[in-house]
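Researcher: Here's a chain I'd like modeled. Treat it as a single chain, no partners, no ligands.
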Amino acid sequence: MNEDTKNPTITSPEFLFTNAEKTMVDQVTSTSVNFNVFRLYAQQWTEVQYPQETQYDLTGRTIPDRHWATYYRDVLRDFKEAKSLLLTQKANYTGAPEGLVVFDNKIAIIDILSSYSYSILVDTFGDVPYSEALDIDGHPQPKYDDAQTIYRDLIAVLTAASHKLDQSAPSYDVADLIFGGDTAKWAKFANSLRFRLAINMDDVDHTYASAQALAAQADGLILVSTDGAYMPYTTNTTNNNPLYLDLVASGRDDFLPANTFVNKMNTLSDPRRAKYFTEFPEGSGQYKGGVYGTVNVYGDFSHLTETIKNPVYPGVLFTYSEVEFLLAEAVERGIAVGGTAASHYNAGITASMKDWGVSSADIAAYLVRSDVAYATAAGTWQQKIGEQAWISYFNRGFEAWTSYRRLDFPALVAPPVTFGDITEVPKRYSYPGIEQTLNAANLEAAVAKLGNNNVTTKIFWDKH
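Model: Modeled as a single isolated chain. Structure tokens:
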């Protein structure tokens, strides 16, 4: 009679894994300014009547605190507990030998997704707790580790996990909301993430980055759209796509495509406009974005299409098109990945357009435009790849913001009115305010190393 049937004290590692996986995808999928402002910082979207976040007010809604807590408390902590339970179950396992392989596969996938989550934290804040994180008993106030050192360890963890996966054996099955337990796809995701981290680091340590990028490529990247990392949502209200909840179920009209983004696509007559936005005026074949960083009237501009408002529209972690843009970068950076920058650039654009349902004829016509073709488009390779990657990363705000920070293209500028007189697009989140209360000494050491806690201070890989 003293057992609480409503609040169990034990659980299955699969339940923890599923919950962490969904929360992780929700965090980068949501457009609620209570969770993240990535689409806004990439200037793909803008706000309507409340422009504070497009004016770079991070603290009014304690956005860094929510982002930090979501990953450490709700994602990484659940992954760690799931891994602990799996290790205990494996140690007590007495069944057939092939059962041990399943345990190893499940643990490897946790290592992969934990590495992904830590990479998001580093790319958002810079130095963060890592080696002492998630250990409330041993390290209630964890130190902040050097971001570049974390990157190197993440690449090592991803390499080991990819190699440990037995691609002929199962793993989580339906408990895995992204790949359904497909270990071959998880290996490609791990290798593609290794490749991304290596390219991010290239301006800091070309020799190391080149070696790691080539090793990841040799192990096998995502090279078809069907191997991309997508998490489908369901018609059940609690499992709808967060975009549906933010844009439809909320009954609010808070977001518009930004003029910064729409104007660039208008200049290029990009056929993805009809996939991304509604026409304004309706039936005109024209598209008009809301003015970035100011108050806008919702009815005076193009809107986001119904596609991403579908409650079952999938969340996205990694796409084939992103891999191709990274490969194009690698060629320009002198990394011998094969092909040419132009061939990978074209493949990245093509994959993006196919993902959005653009016709083959429209794709072919777009690629030969003088302002799109790699040989004739304006600017440096950073501009060419950066601008097309930015367009392709529509609805992937974090990747669009990161690509902009690394390549400095597109050439985004801060709006005329900003919070705290910020004069440029933010390059990081400031550390959460709650850390000053809970972990002040280590926070202050991290800020001193960084030089300040400003949003315009660059992440270690942002060298330009």
